[in-house]
């Protein structure tokens, strides 16, 4: 299977294209693919169907960039920590970013992605550092199980603090509640453009770390023997991870499990080579996010279920399976 990686990557791109088309065509008002194509190539402002398609374009683009960021961050996080349970949601990064955003709203009255993004970066980075420091305590160091437990414990504590702030301020709760569940509905181009430079920077760093992650997967001693500066390699890759997590969380809210499920799924096609795991994750993670968003639009019509809830429905059973099967040694 790994020998046909390029062909499978092309299939993954086709799957992503289908997800994009579905995102533009399906919703409370369904349209044919022909109508979608006509709206994209021969837009008529007087045609209601064309107008609906154009309102869905920013939502689809946000699903693309946020999903790609979460997929890359999850795959790289698993490689850096050598922990198959690593994910921005499980490792406390999303919780740190969410709490920082709430504090920004509560203390400074910020609003919009351009304001959220800086607080989300600080919160994501601080949570990642705290989780690693807690897990590093003791003789065995930061083992996969200790990292997962530290991340779960920190997430619970941070969300508790966040809830205290929310119940004490109705205005903060009103601004935050729709962002909290995670989703790509209601987005516009200003939101996407605010986070795009950070997403591109983080993606460039992480996509260039494939060889480094392959070395780290062999263990720190072997990586040093191959000439790697392990501390520097982890630091640079972690910078890319935090940049991706912070930007994606600021734009779309704390969407969980995308970065956990997709990297494990793509290993069936790629094997353990991160030079292929990363691009596959970058393509298939937005396909999963967009498919979840489309499903959320139609499952409870005329209401919508946010994409963050739909990805949790898919990802939670996978997480339980990984824990029960003890996959910690597979990386």
TrEMBL record:
Ranges annotated as spanning the membrane: 57-77, 89-110, 116-135, 147-169, 189-214, 235-262, 274-295, 307-324
InterPro entries named in the record: ABC_BtuC-like, ABC_transptr_permease_BtuC
Membrane topology: Multi-pass membrane protein
Major location category of this protein: membrane
UniProt keyword Ribonucleoprotein present: no
Subcellular location: Cell membrane
Highest taxon above the source species: Bacteria
Alphabetical keyword list: Cell membrane, Membrane, Transmembrane, Transmembrane helix, Transport
PANTHER family from the UniProt entry: FE(3+) DICITRATE TRANSPORT SYSTEM PERMEASE PROTEIN FECC-RELATED, FERRIC ENTEROBACTIN TRANSPORT SYSTEM PERMEASE PROTEIN
Family under the similarity heading: Belongs to the binding-protein-dependent transport system permease family. FecCD subfamily.
Protein name: FecCD family ABC transporter permease
Organism field: Arthrobacter methylotrophus
């Amino acid at each position: 299977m790994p020998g046909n990686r390029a062909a499978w990557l092309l299939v993954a791109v086709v799957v992503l294209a289908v997800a994009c088309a579905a995102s533009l065509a399906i919703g409370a008002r369904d349209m044919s693919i022909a109508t979608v194509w006509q709206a994209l190539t021969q837009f008529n402002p007087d045609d209601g169907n064309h107008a609906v398609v154009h309102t869905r374009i920013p939502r689809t683009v946000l699903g693309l960039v946020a999903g790609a960021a979460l997929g890359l961050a999850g795959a790289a996080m698993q490689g850096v920590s050598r922990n198959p349970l690593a994910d921005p949601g499980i490792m406390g990064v999303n919780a740190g970013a969410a709490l920082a955003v709430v504090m920004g709203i509560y203390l400074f009255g910020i609003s919009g992605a351009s304001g959220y993004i800086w607080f989300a970066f600080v919160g994501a980075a601080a949570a990642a550092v705290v989780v690693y420091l807690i897990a590093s305590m003791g003789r065995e160091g930061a083992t996969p199980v200790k990292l997962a437990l530290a991340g779960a414990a920190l997430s619970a504590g941070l969300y508790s603090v966040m809830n205290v702030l929310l119940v004490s301020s109705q205005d903060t709760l009103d601004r935050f509640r729709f962002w909290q569940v995670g989703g790509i509905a209601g987005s516009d181009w200003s939101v996407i453009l605010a986070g795009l430079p950070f997403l591109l920077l983080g993606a460039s760093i992480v996509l260039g770390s494939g060889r480094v992650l392959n070395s780290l997967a062999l263990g720190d001693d072997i990586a040093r023997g191959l000439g790697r500066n392990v501390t520097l390699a982890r630091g640079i890759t972690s910078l890319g991870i935090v940049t991706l997590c912070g930007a994606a969380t600021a734009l779309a809210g704390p969407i969980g499990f995308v970065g956990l499920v997709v990297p494990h799924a793509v290993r069936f096609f790629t094997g353990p080579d991160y030079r292929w795991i990363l691009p596959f994750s970058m393509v298939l993670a937005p396909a999963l996010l967009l498919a979840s968003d489309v499903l959320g639009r139609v499952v409870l019509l005329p209401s919508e279920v946010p994409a963050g809830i739909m990805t949790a429905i898919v990802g939670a059973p996978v997480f339980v399976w990984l824990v029960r099967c003890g996959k910690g040694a597979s990386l």
